[in-house]
Each structure stands twice: as C-alpha cells, then as structure tokens.
Amino acid sequence: MFIEQRLLDCVSYGTAGGPTWLTRRVRLNSGIMRRNPRRSRPLYKYAVIFRNLEPDGHAEIIQAFNACMGGVHSFRLKDWSDYQADDEAFEALGTGAEVSVQLSKLYSFGGEGIRRPIRKPVDGTVQLTANNIAIPSTVDYTTGIVTFTAAELAVVRWSGEFDVPVMFSDDELQFSFDNRNANGLFLTADVQLEEDTAA
C-alpha cells in the first residue's frame, strides 16, 4: 500500500542519500574485467537525520513509522539533492492525437544516458510545452502519467518537482535525547529509507 503523504521535510545537515547501482564484475584470466549492470535503473537509498525535533515533529515521525507498520507501507520523500525536472524532453514526439505518457528524467554523460521514471510528481507543479509553447495537460500525481495533445512531430517537454516513493528500511525506530530547553527535550532520529520501485 502507498500513502500519498510526504515525510517531514526538516532534515538536518549530515543527511545522506542518492542512487545506487548493482554491477556484476568478473575478472578474466587475461586481466580484463567484464562489467554488467544487474539493474536497469538506479535504486535510491537515504540515511535521513532529524536533529533536535520539536514535539510536533517528533510526533509526526512516530505516527508515520507506526502507521506504515515499519517497512510495510510506502510514502513520499523530498530528495533535496534531486527533486526538479527542468525542460525535460519526452522520448516521443507529438502525434496530433491525445496520448498518455510516463513522466521521466534523463541523466546523461558524454554519449551515454539513463532515463528515470518519475512516478510521484508534486501536485500542481507540472507544466508542459510543445515547441516551447505551453500546452494543457492532465497529470495523475499518484503515478506520474500525463495526458496531452500536441501537434504532430512537436517536441514536448515538461518541468516540475517530484518526490521519491520510499519505505522504512528498518522495523525499529530509535530516538536520542540530545538537547533540551525550558519546554523540554529535543529528540534526534536517524531514519534509513529506500526507494519502493513498485509504488
């Protein structure tokens, strides 16, 4: 089950995360190493730090963890290192008819590239253009499927923000008591998350 809710945004310095690949490496007798990807796209993992949480923030983390039954249910996370698409071109050109397409983001280097499906765009942020002119569209913000009509052979692009569908990696959540003021204790939690590629 996926919960269309974003986890608390107030992450602290020291939060880490990003894409991970899985590569099969075999060294031949000649010394040459053969390398083959075991995934068709990256899997994103995060170590999120919530430091000196106020009572409301602490309650939100506890509620999210328990409502998700630990790692059972998935939810949204804002990856502050990569949460925007800017003028991303669709793989296919306009057809003159209504089409439905999965939003995606291209990561390229030299002549190589990989396309990442964007399945959790942020509500109200997605905008489409065809040959640099804004066009209307209908966006399913729960799947990242966008429906539009563009002139035949038009180059269609999109811009907007997106979240990552994630789940708790662990079934245990611990808080440390690191600080206090007149209103009571401030709590800190280190939360391990990983992308839910099925969401």
* Average of per-residue pLDDT values: 92
Count of structural domains: 2
Distance between the termini: 8 Å
* Share in helix: under 10%
Question: What report would you give on this structure?
Answer:
This protein is mainly beta and 199 residues long. The protein has two domains: 1-79 and 164-199, no CATH class; 84-162, no CATH class. The protein has one helix spanning 55-67; strands spanning 2-6, 16-20, 23-27, 33-37, 43-53, 74-77, 84-89, 98-102, 104-109, 112-117, 127-130, 133-135, 137-140, 145-149, 156-161, 164-168, 175-181, 184-195. The strands form five sheets. Strands 1, 2, 5, 6, 16, 17 and 18 form a seven-stranded mixed β-sheet that branches. Strand 17 and strand 18 form a beta hairpin.
Q: Could you provide a short overview of the structure?
A:
This protein is mainly beta and 199 residues long. The chain contains 1 helix and 18 strands.
List keywords for this structure.
single chain, seven-stranded mixed beta sheet, four-stranded antiparallel beta sheet, 199 residues, 1 helix, 52% strand, mainly beta, 2 domains
Topology diagram in text:
Elements: E1 2-6, E2 16-20, E3 23-27, E4 33-37, E5 43-53, H1 55-67, E6 74-77, E7 84-89, E8 98-102, E9 104-109, E10 112-117, E11 127-130, E12 133-135, E13 137-140, E14 145-149, E15 156-161, E16 164-168, E17 175-181, E18 184-195
Parallel strand pairs: 1-6
Antiparallel strand pairs: 2-5, 3-4, 5-18, 6-16, 7-15, 8-14, 9-10, 11-12, 11-15, 13-14, 16-18, 17-18
